[in-house]
Amino acid sequence: MSGDNKIRIGVMSCTNIVRKLSRAINLAPNATIAAIASITTSIQETKSFAASNGFPPTVKIHSSYESLLEDPDVDAVYVPIPTSLHLEWVIRAAWNGKHVLLDKPVALNVSDFDLIVAACESNGVQFMDGTQWMHNPRTTKINELITDSESFGHIKSVHSCFSFAASETFLKNDIRVKPGLDGLGALGDAGWYTIQAVLLANNFKLPKTVTALSGPVLNDAGIVLSCGALLSWEEGVTATIYCSFLANLTMEITAIGTKGTLRVHDFVIPFQETEASFTTSTGTCVNDHKVMTELPQEACMVIEFARLVGEIKNKGTKPDGFWLSISRKTQLLVDAVKESIDNNLEPVFLSGR
Amino acid sequence: MSGDNKIRIGVMSCTNIVRKLSRAINLAPNATIAAIASITTSIQETKSFAASNGFPPTVKIHSSYESLLEDPDVDAVYVPIPTSLHLEWVIRAAWNGKHVLLDKPVALNVSDFDLIVAACESNGVQFMDGTQWMHNPRTTKINELITDSESFGHIKSVHSCFSFAASETFLKNDIRVKPGLDGLGALGDAGWYTIQAVLLANNFKLPKTVTALSGPVLNDAGIVLSCGALLSWEEGVTATIYCSFLANLTMEITAIGTKGTLRVHDFVIPFQETEASFTTSTGTCVNDHKVMTELPQEACMVIEFARLVGEIKNKGTKPDGFWLSISRKTQLLVDAVKESIDNNLEPVFLSGR
């Protein structure tokens, strides 16, 4: 793809996740970093960040998000700012005609997200959340296998967990433990992944009920540091999730069908960047699968995002609503777990939501 | 060990599990099959069963359980009869001075089990339940690793499941789906293992509460075919279990500590008889472990049972209460899950039980 046809992405902030995503954009053949805006660093510091992360020399440096969003040489923005700021800045981006790649959780709650959706739809901009593992080629393979009724049958039970042992500094200072910033804590962060995993295993069908499990751990400000939940569909199909900032790194999916079982041990971030494995089994017959990944999963995500944006920009098509619908379902379930925690672990019925 | 010193075991019934245990007794150097009693087969059929399963030619054939229990040449009995018959026959065995290896679930409920315990204690007989995987050398190794606070830290979350896809015939006719026989269904059978797994991971400490998860599947007679439960300890330590007759064979333990994670994929019956594997990880560093098992786990169980019986028989020591205490805790938790299912999924508080 010639340089002119690449989707020009503007990134917001100079955080670590921007380092990772910038590398991914550089690796993606259909995208380029066109601009950066940082409001917490000086122009000089931002320039230095851009240089040390391999941004093209032509990159524009903005000192405000407004200025980035008004830049006519930017097609799309990557928005990794705290969740409490998503509503304002994604709506502004949409009304400026910028396509949006937004970090999870997508909003503080689903009604905020619906305002984001409305803004994106009104302006015909593409939306995608930044859940990288969903774009790993392994995930495509997993999806094929668990929707194969011959080998997997139909789903009966899923368990997914994502935990990591956060440092004392993280538990004191990270935006993910601050009510004014990422108020959903471990649930909006680690829990987001586990909820998308159980949705994937259920072909993205919403459960009937969501019930938080007893024993959630909250910090003094009431932010979830660790919790679990049960999701229930019809006919005894169930899923449990567990997410935590307080336990050793664990990233599991165990999905059990009537005929097959799937196990993944590193679903969020594969232990190796260039290959990703999982196992399936039927009875005592176990198969190990390995999927080679030429590019890291975050680059695959950028490529897919830029492809969708390219369809709109170059062919005048409408935005693809698939990823947006998954973001909304995930946010709905995150909200439901939170509601159940806040409501003495009562089940939350999702009908009509 | 000379033939004279071997613990002489009498087995009850001619079922498939007796085939498996007879092989185990034959493999155990400190035990021998001294007698068999079957009330559903003719003497000739029982003789033929004995011959085709490698019983010693000297084995005595009894046509009633009473007669077996009165046999002075029997030290101990293996009792794999339906759960509803445990109370009567284990109490009779104990009062006849026979040590007891009893299949799980040990009773229909813990108050029945307490009568069994009282009978065993009154008569100084050794009790052990027939949960084979607890005697696999791998389980010893697992126990060492998860109680190592240096590498594992302390437990935060455990998930264990045991499911298998029962045939239509099983779901119609097996004793495990009949109210009058094994009325605890999948919970007393598959669930028993998962509960012992989460107890093991919690150093056999009882949880504070047990809550059945929504979505249990019952048959027309009200027997559990599939269910899940949450077990909660102090400070947010939780475990979830899932057991089912309706899903593909899956036998998982995922135990997450503050510093380490343990994963076992075949904890109930290892995929291979002569070796058993598991993995541990800390952060992204994963270690595969393999434990060689010279004898199958059921033979290890018989050896341990016969060793304990031998201590009493030959040295006059008192019965060892360790295995009995674990059986009681497991039964207590099985009961609690059932109580929660019967009581609209309300939590069951275990304090004082």
Automatic annotation (TrEMBL), chains A, B:
Domain annotation Gfo/Idh/MocA-like oxidoreductase N-terminal: ranges: 8-128
Gene Ontology molecular function: nucleotide binding
Residue ranges occupied by any GFO/IDH/MocA-like oxidoreductase domain in the UniProt entry: 148-263
Pfam families: GFO_IDH_MocA (PF01408), GFO_IDH_MocA_C3 (PF22725)
Record-linked InterPro entries: Gfo/Idh/MocA-like_OxRdtase_N (IPR000683), GFO_IDH_MocA-like_dom (IPR055170), NAD(P)-bd_dom_sf (IPR036291)
Family, similarity comment: Belongs to the Gfo/Idh/MocA family.
The protein's name in its UniProt record: Uncharacterized protein
Originating species: Arabis alpina
